[in-house]
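TA notes, week 10

Several of you asked for a full example with nothing omitted. So below is the full record: structure tokens for the whole chain, then the designed sequence directly under it. When grading your own attempts, check the secondary structure regions first.
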């Protein structure tokens, strides 16, 4: 496992320490969890942006939400 250093504002550091004390987990645990969850979100966002750009570049068809509802015959 690799080690890295992170600089946090004092207020964020205090919140992290308080959470660690309340939860019985280490600050390192919470930092790792937060980074992993945020990375997943960023990876998903990047993949979606890449797919959307490729779709636009190839002239892919797009539909409004109303048109999609009509196409799928979705009822309220």
């Amino acid at each position: 496992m690799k080690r890295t250093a992170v600089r946090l504002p004092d207020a964020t550091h205090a919140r992290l320490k308080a959470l660690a004390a309340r939860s019985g987990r280490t600050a390192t645990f919470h930092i790792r969890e937060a980074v992993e969850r945020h990375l997943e979100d960023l990876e998903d966002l990047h993949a979606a942006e890449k797919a959307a750009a490729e779709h636009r570049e190839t002239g892919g068809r797009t539909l409004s939400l109303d048109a999609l509802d009509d196409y799928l015959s979705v009822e309220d």
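The two ends are 50 Å apart (CA to CA). Use that as a sanity check on your answer.
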